[in-house]
Amino acid sequence: MKFILIDKIIKLETGSEIVAVKNVSLAEEYLGDHFPTFPVLPGVLLLEGLIETGSWLVREHQNFSNSMVLLESARNVKYKSFAAPGMQIEYRIKAKAIEENVSTFSGEGICGDKPIVEAKFSLRHFNLADENHKMASVDGIITENMKKRFELLRS
Predict the structure, then answer these.
(1) Per-residue confidence (pLDDT) for residue 148, from 0 to 100
(2) Which of 42, 26, 55 is nearest to 124 (CA)?
(3) Counting C-beta atoms within 10 Å of the first and last residue's C-beta, which end of the chain has fewer, N or C?
(4) Measured between alpha carbons, how far is residue 67 from residues 27, 37, 47, 51, 106 in Å?
């Protein structure tokens, strides 16, 4: 199952900060099991929302030069509340440094005025062709798809 954990980018300052939103819907399949009588967005997906939001800041800042933007490390992750169906999460990410291969961030997720998650994390970015030149065409396909998704999120 592939998750897309943000619905819209509402603010972007190149290389500095990004704000995105996620609307939690009861239609999301995993909520049936997490938990049947008390459905809430799993904590790992709250963290993934921060990571996904930060990855768009890297991609835009580096002009989509890397196909892969993956979690390198997460520190000081604090879950402060739950995100239930009908709530909207606002992910706010600030870049500490966006470098060639690794970038560092701090971020928080807020529902209304209530903080629900915060973390410090780093992302590693690279191309598949860095290890295997035959993967260059795959890098191109992924990058083009990410550009299209970015335009949808910004519209």
Answers:
(1) 98
(2) 55
(3) N
(4) 30, 40, 21, 15, 22
State how far the Cα of 27 lies from the Cα of 35, in Å rounded to an integer. 13
Q: Which amino acid is at 136?
A: A
CA–CA separation, 76 and 141 (whole Å): 35
What pLDDT is stored for residue 3 in this prediction?
A: 82
Amino acid at 4: I
* Residue 59 in tokens: 């991609």
3-state secondary structure of 41: coil
Catalytic residues: 34
CA distances (Å), 33 to each of 4, 46, 87, 150, in order? Answer: 19, 16, 18, 30
Beta-strand ranges (E) seen in the chain are: 8-13, 17-23, 68-79, 88-98, 102-111, 114-126
